[in-house]
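Fold it.
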Amino acid sequence: MDIKEKIEEIVDKVKNDKEFEKNFKENPVKAVESVVGVDLPDDKIKPIVDGVKAKIGAGKVGKLLDKIM
């Protein structure tokens, strides 16, 4: 499994699927497992969850900066 690829896939899904976005906010581990298709230990999923949160957060910061400038 390519973690970077999965992170990008999940970020796209969060941005384009409101129901998935809600599920990700409520229980990110389960949401990621639903995309990965495998029930992995939380410590294996956590890097993906953290990567998705970082990408989503970076995108929100960028949008805020665009509005300010």
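The longest helix spans residues 42-68.
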